[in-house]
Amino acid sequence: MNIVIANVLDFNPQIGGLERVSCNLAVEFGRMGHIVYFVAMRESPYTPYSQNQCKPVVEQMMLPNPLIANCEENFFCFTNYLVEKKIDILINQAAETAEFSNLCMAVKTKTKIKLLSVLHFDPARNIKLYYSDPSLLFYRSWVVRQIFMLLKMVYFLRPKRYKRDLSKLYHQLYVESDAVVLLSDHFKPTYKKIAKLHDISKLKSIPNSLTFSVSEETGLKEKQILWIGRFQIMQKRPERLVKVWSYLEAKYPDWHVLFLGDGIYRPKVEQYVRRLGLKNIRFGGFADPEEAYRKSSIICMTSTYEGFGLVLTEAMQFGVVPMAFSSFESIDDIIKEGVTGYKIKPYDLKQYARQLELLMTDENRRSQMAQNARKHVTEKFNVERITQQWITLFEQVCCSTCSELPIL
């Protein structure tokens, strides 16, 4: 079987979780005898291959127009490539991007190949962003933040435009794809509601696989708390952990926080750290996270939403205890409350600090939860198991004809 995995950004595994997962799948598919190609629209602005000497794991074709996805030159280039390589299945890893998805749906219609549209985000992400609290970086005063939220509710009431646009995209994806793949079964009710679907037989769920090979115990841990991600203020919200740490640093001078990642808001986060007078926070920039996973005791996620939270399962694989807001449904697949980690009510920073302090001060609890976390993810999200789920889906879409849902 010939497979194309497509995305807006190139498939450099150093960029992030989606890229690492795609590279792992490509390698696994290849080992099973399938031929895999990458198609991308543009290089990542963070870590292009030319800087890091990181080559794609399979042949990668870049579309000619890096700015406008669904344009004529990209359509013809993409279509010709699929025909030339005799592609059977196209996996669109950027289904949440309307313009890129429209391109994938157009080439699917032209070539009659099978299209699997993968949503790597929480289906309700824009709605959650709308209702989330304002960033501490821009609204320092609690009173100002409450006034800002009140004004949003009074003048806009509901994010109607977001819901309308999401509904249109999700419905179109479902109608024109052979399957829409979500990262958790827990996301299906949300997708169904937003897309206004009656039938969800083409909604599938396949979680992200682990992306590291860890066969041994990872050794002694340092008193290090880890945060990994892009410095995005809408989704990732690194400043939340800075605020949480401000409640604890003076009491625990032997602990420190490491931020890995980069982005345009990193200078503002660093400025916020200086303003709060915090000393035990380090910034490591973009880096291979494996060493940090091996050394860290706790990983903190502070996102407004996630599709899956791959950094959590990766860290758990190395015996790092996870903490995250219960702000996205797939968290229930990853964290068993009090057993493999802690889920915090969105977005209660003081509760977050209390639970973090509990982990920091109870080494026996931390050690047991680390063992539980490692066992849980290696059994549930190992690459062989996830790859087989993909192969099963390939067989389903290639051997049966999905009935098309009428447009409502």
CATH architecture of the largest domain: 3-Layer(aba) Sandwich
User: CATH H level of the largest domain: which superfamily?
Assistant: Glycogen Phosphorylase B
Name the beta content range: 5-15%
Q: Which shape, going by the Cα principal axes?
A: globular
Overall tally of structural domains: 2
What percent of residues adopt helix (DSSP H or I)? 40-55%
Placed side by side, the strands forming the largest sheet appear as 3-2-1-4-5-6-7
Rg calculated over all Cα atoms: 22 Å
Oligomer: single chain
Topology:
Elements (H helix, E strand, L loop, with lengths): L1 E8 L7 H15 L3 E8 L6 H4 L7 E3 L9 H13 L4 E4 L5 H14 L2 E5 L6 H7 L10 H15 L3 H17 L2 E4 L5 H8 L7 E3 L18 E5 L10 H8 L9 E5 L5 H10 L5 E3 L6 H6 L2 E3 L9 H8 L3 E5 L5 H4 L7 E3 L4 H13 L1 H18 L2 H17 L9
Parallel strand pairs: 1-2, 1-4, 2-3, 4-5, 5-6, 6-7, 8-9, 8-11, 9-10, 11-12, 12-13
Helix pairs in contact: 1-16, 3-4, 9-14, 12-15
Describe the protein's architecture and organization.
With 408 residues, the chain is α/β, with parallel strands linked by helices. The chain has 2 domains: 2-125 and 158-209 and 383-399, Glycogen Phosphorylase B (Rossmann fold, 3-Layer(aba) Sandwich), CATH 3.40.50.2000; 224-380, Rossmann fold (3-Layer(aba) Sandwich). Helix content is 43%, strand content 14%. The strands form 2 sheets. A 7-stranded parallel sheet has the order 3-2-1-4-5-6-7, with helices on both faces. The chain is globular, with a radius of gyration of 22 Å.
List the defining traits of the structure above.
2 domains, globular, 7-stranded parallel beta sheet, 13 strands, alpha/beta, Rossmann fold, 408 residues
